[in-house]
Automatic annotation (TrEMBL):
It is found in: Cell membrane. It comes from Silvimonas amylolytica. InterPro entries: CHASE3, HATPase_C_sf, HATPase_dom, His_kinase_dom, Sensor_HK_TwoCompSys, Sig_transdc_His_kin_sub3_dim/P. The chain crosses the membrane at residues 195-223. Its main location: membrane. Pfam families: CHASE3, HATPase_c, HisKA_3. Keywords: Cell membrane, Kinase, Membrane, Transferase, Transmembrane, Transmembrane helix, Two-component regulatory system. The keyword Kinase applies. This is Histidine kinase domain-containing protein. The keyword DNA damage does not apply.
């Protein structure tokens, strides 16, 4: 080897200046390509940030349009028949409109100087018009609340209301058109950068191949050393495989820690809702009950109103309990996984009018606490998806446990879907996949339009040291 290195300058001189220049160029150009690729990749990352921000603005404007339509529909429905459901829908929608309008103003105020041109003044004008429109709608609703429906209808039918609505719609359409144009330009710019990177990498690879060919011709006499080079390469591959395995394990542990962190925050929020909000609602109910008893004979109308208020409070308390249970399944720590799944399935079947089929182990089956929580969340997410999208009448849940694995199967007879053409917002299925793969599990979805959805999850009974995942069900 030392002799070869000593003779290398002479060998290169013997090859001629053209080949020497070609080899030098082949060495320097990949370095230049790598430098340019790194620069372009940074530019592509900046373009991606801009694309995400533009997409979020488009979604915000679309949400604003939808909320405005909902508010107008609720207002007109309330003014037509005085139904309180329309009033409640209106009261829930208006704060969302104000909040989203303010957020859009802030986003456009934060646009960087080197970003594509955006008209912040137009957004500010849109926010002002929305405020005027909401003020006008509030006046009409206030008349209706006081019983003067006719006056509220007259206010809605004024030309000013129609002009405001038309101006708001026109401004949103103009802003959306501008954002879509910017989005197209940003995507085109990113595609150009990706093309440059690909060209640079391709050129580098071609030159590397040329260099390897030249070196092979130059050092044909060194074929005897190939076995040693192969052994060195195998050793490097082994090192790289070990590093990949180490990084994969670290990412798996990180994903698991993230899920457990989310569950701890959910448990904390559930405790706060149970302690703080529960005590407030209970105290309020007691106070109203006391007022009822005091005025029952003197003010029967107020008594009936308070009676309705108590019913609303009871609904709020039940809703609070359901939210707390969904945030933090306390049944897991009290009764275990099997009883918790059974309770969750029965409640879902009752709400959605399903025929539920359960095949579960004995309630005394011991399962790791972290694994129990992951399985519970998978079942919870699957039932939630079935209730929202499946339109099913029959759901089956099966859980089998042995010494090494747990197999969970969930099936419904709903509308099904095309798994090869799912929309990008299928967070439910993605959440199930992440929970399963985070602990080394395997997941399978099977579905066709009109044939329901079948989910099978295979999880290991032991996956990581207990000390790495603090308890979250306390």
């Amino acid at each position: 080897m030392k002799k070869m290195l000593r003779n290398l300058p002479g060998m290169l001189m013997a090859l001629g200046w053209r080949l020497q220049a070609g080899l030098a160029f082949a060495v320097l150009l990949p370095v230049l390509a790598a430098f340019l690729s790194d620069t372009w990749i940074g530019q592509a990352e900046e373009d991606n940030v801009g694309i995400v921000a533009t997409h979020q603005r488009i979604l915000a404007f679309q949400d604003l349009q939808s909320l405005l339509l909902e508010a107008e529909s609720a207002q007109r429905g309330f003014l037509v028949n005085g139904d309180l459901q329309y009033q409640m829908a209106y009261d829930q929608t208006v704060p969302k409109i104000r909040q989203l309008s303010g957020q859009l103003v802030d986003r456009y105020a934060e646009v960087q100087p080197n970003s594509p041109p955006r008209d912040a003044r137009k957004v500010q004008q849109l926010s002002v018009e929305i405020g005027e429109k909401l003020a006008e709608m509030d006046i009409g609703v206030s008349y209706a609340r006081s019983g003067d429906l006719e006056r509220g209808r007259e206010l809605v039918n004024t030309n000013r209301g129609f002009e405001l609505a038309a101006s708001i719609s026109r401004h949103i359409d103009e802003l959306l058109a501008n954002e879509h144009r910017i989005l197209g330009e940003e995507r085109a710019a990113r595609q150009r950068v990706v093309l440059y990177v690909r060209l640079a990498v391709a050129a580098a690879w071609i030159l590397v191949l040329i260099l390897n060919l030249g070196l092979l011709l130059m050092f044909a006499s060194l074929l005897a050393q190939k076995s040693r080079q192969a052994r060195d390469m195998a050793q490097r591959h082994a090192v790289l495989d070990a590093r990949i395995h180490e990084k994969t394990s670290a990412l798996t542990a990180l994903s698991m820690d993230y899920q457990m962190g989310v569950e701890r925050e959910r448990a904390k929020l559930a405790r706060e809702l149970h302690d703080e909000l529960g005590s407030i609602l209970t105290a309020t109910k007691m106070d109203i009950s006391w007022v009822q008893r005091e005025i029952k004979d003197q003010y029967p109308n107020i008594f009936e109103k308070l009676k309705r208020t108590l019913r609303n409070l009871d609904q709020g308390i039940q809703f609070k309990r359901r939210v707390v249970q969904e945030l933090h399944p306390s049944l897991l720590s009290t009764f275990g996984l099997i009883a918790s799944i059974r309770s969750l399935a029965e409640d879902a079947a009752q709400r959605s009018n399903w025929q539920m089929e359960l095949a579960l182990p004995d309630d005394e089956t011991k399962i790791d606490e972290t694994l129990s929580l992951i399985i519970y969340r998978i079942v919870q997410e699957s039932l939630s998806n079935a209730a929202k999208y499946a339109n099913a009448s029959k759901v089956g849940i099966s859980l089998m446990v042995d010494d090494e694995h747990m197999k969970l199967e969930i099936e419904d007879n709903g509308v099904g879907c095309n798994l090869d053409n799912l929309p990008g917002d299928t967070h439910g299925l993605q959440g199930i996949r992440h929970r399963a793969t985070a602990i080394g599990g395997k997941l399978e979805f099977r579905s066709e339009p009109g044939k329901g959805l079948y989910t099978r999850v295979l999880l290991p009974r032991t996956f990581v040291k207990e000390k790495q995942h603090p308890k979250v069900l306390s």
